Batch of 4 targets.
Target 1
Amino acid sequence: MKKEYPNIKHSFDVWHGTKNLGKKIIKAGQDKKNKGLLAWTKDVVNHYWYTAQISSSVEDFKGTWIGVLHHVVNVHEWVLPYSASSTNRCEHGPLTSEREKGWLERDSPAHVALRHIVLDKRLLNNIPYYLNFRSTAELENFQNLILMYASKRHSYTPPVYQCRNILAALDHNGHLDRTVITNKDGSVRYQRVFQKKSSRWSVTPCKIHKEYKYIPQVVQRILQKRLDDDIGMNRIVALEVDDPRRVSAHLAPIPPPPTRQIVNEQKSRFRPQEDLDKTIDYWMESNV
């Protein structure tokens, strides 16, 4: 892509980048000697997300990102910055003395494991692809919604599949701006979710239930369309130009010969005297 389209800015999905980073930390933290690293999984991932959000160059990214190695050991200011455009201190505010999560020990196995992840050569080389801070999370949510209407476990004809995609689009657009449920005191209501791999709890905001207010209007339009149709549903309908059913059933470059001809050409040399008209059921009955 760099050679053929040099003017196009190639970006990676920052959500997938942070997800892969979290997997590496969880895998390293599953080792007994690195068990303390699991508690820092979300913090390190959030720091990577924040770094990609505020950085405008590779130097800015490295200067902010590598600083997490000092923060996890309770060191929030160091001698020299890691880049000319970054600072030599953490950017967070004052920390409270009440903490449930402990700090890592400097040069401990958990800290060394995190250092290898943070300074991984491949991870640092991919920094330019995350500077635009782009994510396809909304698109992937819509794709998951399509699977609710058109499951991969079933097959559909092209018109049916197209209609199911339209229903998914109506569902998505009709409930795009659902409000968050609040408690009596006005605070946002959350629901708890336990993550088995990271052994930690997380929360997601609760939204109001879907109301599907567009359904009566859709039903009305369908009935009106049927009443206004003078031809009826039994007429022959020509396939569209881009209809997948126009595609050939096979991809062979030559037309298939008759089945009988293929059978004669592939007749087994071990049973030359057998009658080709015998069916599979015949052989099963004779063998019994």
Note: The chain has a mean pLDDT of 85.
Target 2
Amino acid sequence: MVLSDLPDEAFFSIFSFLDPQQTCRCTSMSRAVKRLAEADGLWQEFCFRRWSGKHKNPLRDEVHSKEYWPKQKALGKTAKECFTTAEVEGRRTVITRHDLLNNEWNFTWSHEQDKPIRIVFREDPCTTVLLGRTCTWSITPENHVKIDEYPTLSVSRTKAWGWTLSNAYVDICAVDPVTGMRSLSSLGKRTLSPAIAYAWYAYVFHALSDEHADERSRTERIQRFRERVELLQMREQQPVRNVENEPDFVVLE
């Protein structure tokens, strides 16, 4: 039995323990593994995990999820490309007019606990209503936002990929219209070290290569090994890592 003879389900079981970076490393194993490691279903799962809690998450519920993937497929984009594009976009620190115009913003004084004031930036003309008066706004060449004669606002990104404009006196934060976001992950949020993952792969390969074992026996052996892996993870006191809390990274081809 060769590697390409393994059923897709076996590989997907293995990949369910890996994070996106580890999965990308597996693409160099063979053409068959590369095809499975880049499968849309697998990367849609990674998107569910990674985007949960992010600003304007397009997969915030089942309705939006069902609409999103067909649109991307019609545009010729794979789920892996969507994941990579989102990672790059989430790390972008240069703000654009589009970012200002397509968000609502909460204005607060930096050292007070007053209720936020909702403001919006308008395009034609470039104005916003701030503290009861109409002000003009602009983006400076230094990537700062200027509102009338008020002190310049520095631009930063939040961990949830939102935007914050701030100076010593005020904070203006992009409002996320998505509330109650949750992960739609069906595989769970578990990852293993590459060493354990490779051991898992080797065992699955051995179990499925046994010509004398029936399908039920193979399934039971794989399930027993899955339980042993999870027990080993607990004994080694390796906490289950949440993909949403992983450091930012970009998937490279």
Note: The longest helix spans residues 215-235.
Target 3
Amino acid sequence: MGLVCCFRISVFLYFISLTLFTRANFCVPTKEVPCGCVFENKMISLDIDGLAPVLKDKDGKDEYFFSPCRPLKGIKELDNECESSAACQKDGEGKLYKLGSTTLTFEGTSFSDLQFVYGAQSSTDKLYRKSVLKLECAVPDLVPALNFVEQTGNTSANTESTPLVYEFLYTGDAACVRDLTTKKISGGSVLLIIFFVGLFLYLVIGILVNKCVRGAVGLEVIPNYAFWQDLPSLTKEGFAFTIKCGCCKGDETARGYDNI
């Protein structure tokens, strides 16, 4: 009985520690990944190539503005408070409510349930609000879209820990998980690949021609064997000639290649 009890407690503590560890370490924001986070060499970033759009949606008379990666600036309908925020609501009477500051936090235990969270207190009615942006991966040629889903919460029991929650759904290519281990081949790598492939073909074709067509044997099957045999001495003479020419500028007789 005691062993069974200890086993159950151990399993319980294991899952608790696993949950805490996952929540503490999942989706870490970095400078290299703007407006997103990284976990186990994978990332999500809504600011691909610095072109994160300002998203809009309407729900009846209410209009919503969302800029997930930078402040809402340059929009005529918004006031100064909304222009410095990440999310804003404009109701049917034209009143503006700040739905979230530009401070971004993350919720979720995996990329499948990752949420971008923005919170703020609106100066219009002093209520606390939180915008929750859920993500849905879409094909690259689909225009990114924002859809307002629902509002939950109670205005009569509104506090910073129990705010009004506005849920949004972002659909776009930027919501897809990207693998950081896959990188494009650099120009230098391409040149190296071409060089070694060319060298391989040069040796194989040259050896076949010398062996089968010319009947060469031994080291003479190597393409241009005489040239490669003389290359070290030619290189040495070239260096010697270059150095000697630089040291003997006034002596024309010592500058000739035949004097080396």
Note: The mean pLDDT is 79.
Target 4
Amino acid sequence: MAAEGPHWIKCARVHLSFLAFLGFVNVYMLRVNLSVAMVAMVTPTPPDSDYSGECTLPGNSTTSASTTTPSTGATYDWDRATQGLILGSFFYGYIVTQLPGGMLAATYGGKWLFGLGVLCTAVFTLLTPLAAKLGVPVLVATRILEGLGEGVTFPAMHGIWTVWAPPLERTKLVSFSFAGAQFGTIIGLPLSGWITDALGWPYIFYIFGGIAVLWFILWIVLVSNTPATNRFITTEEKDYIESEMSKISDGEPVTVRLFASLL
């Protein structure tokens, strides 16, 4: 029986899980940033016409003094329906690539599919301020393309773990990597607000998109589709993973194992 491999901190499968975690952090930060940026992107609407007045302290004037604040970027006259269309258009693309993503991962492996999915989302995020300037149709198309890229990330990651995660470790490795989605949402929302206040809303897209591109470079350099092709894995760990995976994969097509991992 093969040994379990080196100490966990040196294990290639643990490094893979950490990079996958960061990948999901990135894609969910890229997904939610527009929800915050939209507040600064839209021209403030005036109060309702039937508004009767405002509360003031005794002795204070009822006239509100205008204040000048630093510009946070261009603003647009988008009504509620237009805002909803822009925010929801991401999911028009996201739903399309779910099943194709699973089939591509089963056929070609998940490394490039996951990486390119994140990169696609990052590139179109970087182009979001320009798309907004060009008009609503261009911005909607950009968001749809972002969704197409991000839609393959979950199926691709399942494809990776079908060959990387020993059965007794699969729950821990998969759970940790997917937890990046929740963590990305948690930190993406407040960071977007802080960046908007400090630099302006366009920098939300520039900073988040730039971080995701840097992550893509690390992912492509450090990750491989299988333990056998990984440049950084030890022989001991590779033999252990292959030994454990052979117990469940003999005579079973990769597609079956991929969909089994979804259950």
Note: The longest helix spans residues 12-41.
